[in-house]
Amino acid sequence: MLRFVWGVLLVVILGAAYVLTRPRDSGVEFKPKSSAELEQLMQGAFVAARPAMLQLKSLQVSADDRFYYSRQGTASGFLISPDGFALTAYHAVVGVDKLEVLTTKQELLPAKVIGWDESRDLALIQVLAKRRLEFLKVDTTSEAKINDPIVEIGNSGNDFIQPRYGAIQGYIQNLELLIPTKVMLSNVPIHPGDSGGAVVNFAGEAIGIGIGYAQDAKGRVSYLVPFFGLAPWLEQLKTGAKLNIPGLGLRVSQNNTRGMDVDYIQKNSPADQAGLKLGHQSQLLLLELDGQKLETLRDFHRIVRSKKIGESIQLLLLQNNKEISLNLRIE
What we know:
It contains four helices and 19 strands.
């Protein structure tokens, strides 16, 4: 997972939404196996899948009124076709200026983003290689069951394409928190750098992708996007589809006193085109949306996601003790 966006896990979708308090119960009891049992069950699947895995290396360049900044990130991904199509997490590639991948053969290859789906936090990239590449079969017809063993393959810490063993704990779908698809819950111990890694089943096929983790009422939980039923969606992404959820091009975080801190303004977004700037020493606060005060990240996401792409929204901001009122178009 990109180290510079991990602290704002799933920026455009999740924010604080994944710090869940609701039960994970799905009618089936989760019976955890030991780490040794899971490794014994799934080691063969990991070994078979590993040649299709990738380490993503990215560079993002940004600027304010005084300085240019460059940020490097590491994430995970995996090939799904011999001609270089690969899947990763959308938040791992959004806004990057340069993208390369490292294969298990130690080839550093250029890559480009082809399409994405913000709501599922998934992106399709294409690796530019002069040879046919090893790839992993994607299973879109089988829905994983609770207690099914899995392995997520990623690049956290100093690891290079290594396994994280676990099992499916349940599913969650919470439209209020802007998760329009089911998300698998698991006890796979993923960390920064693992986002975008393949979730592989006992048959050695990709059934999902790792996107993040959080603490909920029952402890630490990892989040995986399932591929069940997504075959038409994958074909759509290959044609370059860019499926966006309503947004302003702003990344915000909780301010302890008033409103939301604006931490990032996406290039060419409505906010950027309106002339909003982040100064090196001047804080930019978002106070209201459509006249509604913002007290939590949930408020921000709820109001923005209630809009349709193309509609307008009124912003009230504060910078250098001066209030700024803007009318922006949702994109």
